[in-house]
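Re-run with default settings, no changes from the original entry. Doing this only to confirm the output is reproducible before filing.
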Amino acid sequence: MFEIDWKARRLSYEEKEQYKNEGYVTGLPVFSENAIKDLHNWYDELSSKLPPNIDINKTNMWHKASKKFHDLCRTAAILDYVEDLLGPNFVQWGGQFFSKEPKDGSVVPWHQDAQYWPLNPSNAVTVWLAVFDTDEENGAMKVVSGSHKMGRFVHKKNTAKNLVLDQEVSFDQLDKTKIVSLNLKAGQISLHNDALLHGSEANNSDRRRRQNV
């Protein structure tokens, strides 16, 4: 579907250990630089299909509605990375975008994916694909390393309009010394455990930020 980066590979032993101990691994190559424009066009095509009153950040199950999204999620390089963590028997059950326009003020509060997902046992792997370069300036995802080993955190309801999700973990529950920004180049992915605490701040740059999961 999109040109694969020649550096795409399997996870190393060290990366598998990092995922086990820290709850994430990042900077994994999937799509080549030649594919970036195609990724941008792909996002624009899909997002244009939504009515203006529908928030793309709250629209899930794209893989069931769009064959292009479905096919992207079945890119062999992505599946290989997930297989290295879960083994060969796994299923995809969700797929969505998290989009931040320049200076739009939207924030993803600190949370655990497992808080929202009705899965038992809880051991899902979230795949984040960067459609555009993402860093701290334009609201990259941040994680609390190792927090996936600490059980469920207390989530409280917060319906502030700038929040993409309506439940959040208060900042005082976080170990601030273990916060890591998962900066990605377009075409790269990160993987994180569904119990890992993560969130992202507002996009304060003049650049777009798009990631899909």
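The chain has five helices and eleven strands. Helices lie at 13-22, 36-47, 62-65, 67-73, 76-86.
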